Q: What sequence folds into this?
């Protein structure tokens, strides 16, 4: 008996080595089958896996069985294998012909005679994943020693199958990710936490001339580009998503918009730990060049308009004043007055266009940032607005700054943005009693400057698009006056150049609030 135990132990050690060396699932299952009969000295063996969805056992490997037998399935509780899987315990049958648990349908189809069976469940993490079965012991009956050896074998087989499945799953996910990496149009780079490149797709290789530089770390990938903000800033950022811009002057102008997405894994305590970053690079050269051309065109047109407009408005004012002073016919007085008022309106449009072009071309490095108190700042702007709109009856401009808020920004440029929001709040409010509220608050590391109103509100689907250039909500909805539709685009640009953002909240028939969120540091 000692000799048999030693032989069993040696067999299990050999089995363990063989199973741990197999990762391909089909090869592993075939190996399990071939070893199963040897472990307990049986004529043959069968391996069933559990279909969890159907709650059925099926032959994954059954060496020597006809194809129609291999397609057979057994419900949990059906036959010896089904009973073993359902109860999760091993079963020894040394006289299969007289045991009611033995299903005869496999024997009848295969022509094989089953005399004895040793059936063990394969259990992993408390769940039965299948059954392994030794059939017809070559010498004598199956014993408790055989059962113990076979249970040890089935346990090793379960672990090997689970490892193989995990390996196959990881391999498949890696394959899918590589396919996505290769096929997406954007450049994509996967890096570890230290910036080491794990995967890089063909688009990124082209953008960054990977064949030329053979870089292995993201820090070396952008050596031909001007990066804003700097690479170390992006790598050290605490945010889950960071934005960056890349610009290359030679051999031709090339612009990339970049997004760095931090990737996380969970430790044993469930805490999120950063393990790398996914970098997405988008070619925006055509868009940037179009913007540049449009900006240059608008600037050129605006400047070209200023000189003739100055002459038109100057002479129109003389004509209007002279016609009124000399009592010329009413038609002449009315015509000269209309020419002058429309000239002034056109001059205002040109000035606003010039303001937008100037701010749209701003770079963060050109900002003159200082610290200033938000309440004092909004108070000065409110006084200026009251003076500019003193002729409008029913207009109230109030300040709401219950806490001290310090803003770090270019005061002059932020003032232009707030004034633009006030102008919108007044112009686009058709009500008789117009209320404008300027407010300031600190939240989550940002200083928020808001302009609220009691106007008609903005439909929810418009809240993002109102910040687009030349976009206006339908005049029939807001009753708005003429304009370029550049005011909110200017506000958005002012926020972005300060590394902040602009957003709107609104309720129909109750009013709107537009906010410039600026980083506190």
A:
């Amino acid at each position: 008996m000692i000799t048999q135990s030693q032989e069993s132990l040696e067999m299990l050690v050999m089995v363990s080595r063989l199973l741990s060396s197999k990762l391909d699932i089909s090869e592993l299952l075939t190996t399990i089958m071939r070893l199963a009969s040897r472990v307990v000295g049986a004529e043959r063996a069968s391996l069933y896996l559990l279909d969890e969805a159907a709650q059925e056992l099926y032959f994954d490997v059954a060496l020597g069985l006809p194809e129609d037998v291999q397609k057979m399935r057994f419900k949990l509780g059906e036959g010896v294998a089904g009973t073993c899987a359902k109860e999760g315990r091993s079963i020894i049958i040394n006289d299969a012909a007289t045991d009611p648990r033995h299903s005869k349908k496999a024997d009848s189809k295969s022509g094989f005679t089953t005399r004895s069976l040793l059936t063990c469940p394969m259990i992993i993490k408390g769940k039965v994943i299948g059954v392994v079965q030794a059939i017809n012991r070559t010498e004598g009956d199956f014993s408790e020693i055989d059962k113990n050896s076979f249970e040890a074998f089935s346990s090793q087989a379960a672990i090997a199958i689970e490892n193989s499945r995990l390996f196959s799953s990881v391999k498949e996910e890696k394959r899918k990710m590589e396919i996505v990496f290769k096929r997406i149009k954007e450049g994509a780079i996967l890096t570890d936490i230290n910036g080491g490149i794990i995967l890089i797709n063909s688009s990124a290789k082209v953008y960054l001339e990977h064949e030329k530089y053979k870089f292995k770390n993201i820090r070396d990938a952008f050596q031909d580009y001007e990066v804003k903000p700097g690479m170390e800033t992006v790598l050290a950022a605490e945010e889950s998503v960071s934005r960056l811009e890349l610009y290359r002057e030679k051999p031709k102008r090339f612009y990339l918009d970049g997004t760095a997405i931090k990737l996380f894994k969970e430790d044993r305590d469930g805490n999120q730990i950063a393990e790398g970053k996914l970098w997405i690079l988008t070619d925006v050269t055509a868009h940037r060049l179009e913007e540049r051309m449009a900006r240059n065109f608008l600037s050129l047109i605006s400047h070209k308009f200023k000189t003739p407009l100055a002459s038109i408005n100057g002479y129109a004012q003389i004509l209007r004043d002279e016609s009124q002073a000399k009592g010329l016919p009413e038609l002449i007085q009315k015509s000269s007055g209309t020419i002058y008022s429309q000239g002034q309106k056109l001059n205002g449009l040109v000035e606003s266009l010039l303001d937008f072009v100037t701010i749209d071309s701003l770079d963060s490095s050109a900002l003159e940032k200082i610290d200033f108190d938000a309440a004092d700042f909004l108070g000065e702007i409110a006084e200026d607005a009251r003076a500019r709109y003193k002729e409008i009856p029913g207009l109230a401009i109030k300040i709401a700054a219950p806490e001290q808020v310090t803003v770090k920004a270019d005061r002059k440029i932020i003032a232009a943005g707030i004034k633009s929001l006030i102008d919108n709040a007044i112009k686009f409010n058709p009500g008789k009693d117009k209320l404008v509220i300027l407010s300031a608050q600190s939240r989550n590391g940002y200083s928020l400057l808001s302009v609220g109103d009691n106007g008609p509100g903005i439909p929810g689907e418009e809240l993002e698009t109102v910040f687009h250039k030349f976009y206006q909500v339908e005049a029939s909805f807001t009753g708005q006056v003429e304009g370029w539709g550049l005011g909110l685009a200017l506000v958005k640009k002012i926020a972005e150049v300060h590394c902040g953002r602009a957003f709107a909240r609104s309720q129909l028939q109750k009013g709107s609030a537009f906010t410039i969120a600026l980083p506190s540091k």
Remarks:
- The longest helix spans residues 285-325.
